[in-house]
Write a structure and sequence with these properties.
Blueprint (H helix, E strand, L loop, with lengths): L1 E2 L6 H15 L8 E4 L13 E4 L15 H15 L3 E4 L2 H11 L6 E4 L19 E4 L2 H9 L7 E2 L19 E6 L9 H9 L6 E6 L5 H11 L5 E5 L13 E4 L8 H8 L4 E4 L5 H4 L6 E4 L4 H8 L16 H12 L1 H13 L1
Helix pairs in contact: 2-3, 5-6, 5-9, 10-11
Length: 352
């Protein structure tokens, strides 16, 4: 059960990966996506069984979802009668409540929360307490659900990397290449901190590749211009398959103020690229092993980001600050978050 999505984000990729893993399981499990709101781009849904109901979400602000509860409940009841599912995975507290109301006194379908942001970023989070179970994609989300007084214990499952042969992307021989992949939306992603951090380097040699688009791109381009680094920042725009275009990368940066479980960190590490990420409210702490595959820094701190990046900008292996090799970083993240590993955790939690 999902709200209207852009079609380009991490949640969409996770749903596709989980659906693939479920289909390949023994016995196979079918996954159907219920969209409450017309998707902005429905291409990600075309290979998945799905149902869509046109429920207007207004400006998209989270608190408005609660006012649509009767609409969601009627739609969920209609979908339940048509699809005969045994478990609903609800990605928002309002969908938990709607599914519970829709099933009425019946024991099925069971209703599990499956949040992709921390509950403190969501309205109506008290509705999570009554869910039949919780699949928490990070330990911080699990802790937040416990703090709400949930009836059932959340299970931390993580998010899965898709089944793929991830190629190791080498460190470039020339200038350091700093990589950012994601939306250009400062409300969450705080790419302005990256621009401010890079502005503090004078003699260091680097190129910053920005792969993504969003409403704050003009502002960020202006920041780069004013900081005198515009000739070292490459704006690629939105790229459907960004990793196929990355020939060399020194480090990936994620400067977000909040996340759920950032897939871009997993993807970078699966390609052997170390990461620098903010220790925001959910996600990075489960992925980053400080000093081994990357570093964590405080949120909102451009100076801390600059200091974390500084060792990466020197030339040669002597300046490289991490102890794990690219192959070891790849092996570690696949061991913890590959598709079969995460699906096994999810299946076990659902079986309880």
């Amino acid at each position: 059960m999902v709200r209207r999505l852009s079609g380009r984000g991490g949640m969409e990729r996770v749903i596709q990966t989980v659906s693939d893993a479920a289909r390949r399981a023994t016995p196979p499990v079918s996954v159907e996506v219920w969209c409450f709101g017309i998707p902005m781009d429905d291409r990600w849904l075309r290979a998945l069984p799905h149902r869509i109901v046109d429920i207007d979400q207004g400006t998209g602000r989270r608190f408005q979802l609660g006012t649509k509860l009767p609409c969601y409940t009627r739609a969920a009841r209609r979908f339940m009668r048509a699809a005969k599912v045994d478990t609903c995975l609800a990605t928002d507290p309002v969908f938990v409540r709607a599914a519970l109301l829709a099933r009425g006194r019946h024991p099925e379908p069971r209703v599990f929360s499956w949040l992709h942001f921390a509950p403190d970023r969501m309205a109506n989070r008290a509705w999570l307490r009554s869910a039949d179970g919780h699949l928490a994609i990070s330990t911080q989300i699990a802790d937040a659900i416990r703090a709400l007084g949930a009836v059932h214990e959340p299970v931390t499952v993580g998010n899965p990397l898709p089944a793929s042969d991830f190629r190791l992307i080498p460190r470039p021989d020339g200038p350091a290449r700093i990589l950012y992949i994601g939306r250009l939306q400062n409300h969450q992603k705080r790419v302005d901190l990256l621009m401010a951090a890079l502005a503090g380097f004078s003699d260091e040699d680097f190129v910053c590749d920005i792969m993504g688009d969003g409403p704050d791109r003009p502002l960020l381009e202006q920041m780069a211009e004013e900081a005198g680094i515009s000739d070292r920042v490459v704006w690629h725009g939105w790229v459907a398959e960004p990793w196929s275009q990355v020939e060399g990368a020194t480090v990936l940066v994620l400067p977000s103020d909040f996340e759920g479980f950032p897939m871009v960190l997993l993807e970078a590490l699966a390609h052997g690229i170390p990461v620098v990420a903010t220790d925001c409210n959910a996600g990075p702490r489960d992925v980053v092993v400080p000093g081994r595959n990357g570093f964590l820094i405080p949120t909102g701190d451009a100076a801390a980001l600059r200091e974390a990046l500084r060792p990466f900008l020197g030339r040669g292996q002597a300046s490289f600050p991490l102890l794990w090799s690219r192959r070891e970083r790849q092996d570690d993240v696949l061991r913890r978050f590959s598709e079969p590993v995460v699906w096994a955790r999810m299946a076990d939690a659902l079986a309880r």
